[in-house]
Specification:
Blueprint: E1 16-20, E2 28-33, E3 38-43
Antiparallel strand pairs: 1-2, 2-3
Bound molecules: zinc ion.
Zinc ion binds near residues 12 and 36.
Length: about 50
Amino acid sequence: MTERPACPYCRERERIRLLSAVGGQLITAQWHCDACNSYFEAVRSDFDTE
Ligand SMILES: [Zn+2]
């Protein structure tokens, strides 16, 4: 887990915390943005094959 996703709501990249390595789907992780206090899921970097 090297790359942190940007918050989809406020585009914050620094104050992002990983909540769970697995989110609603196997390829997603669950994150929390401390900047806008939002939860979001992002595709895990190790599954991002682009
Ligand atoms: Zn945010």
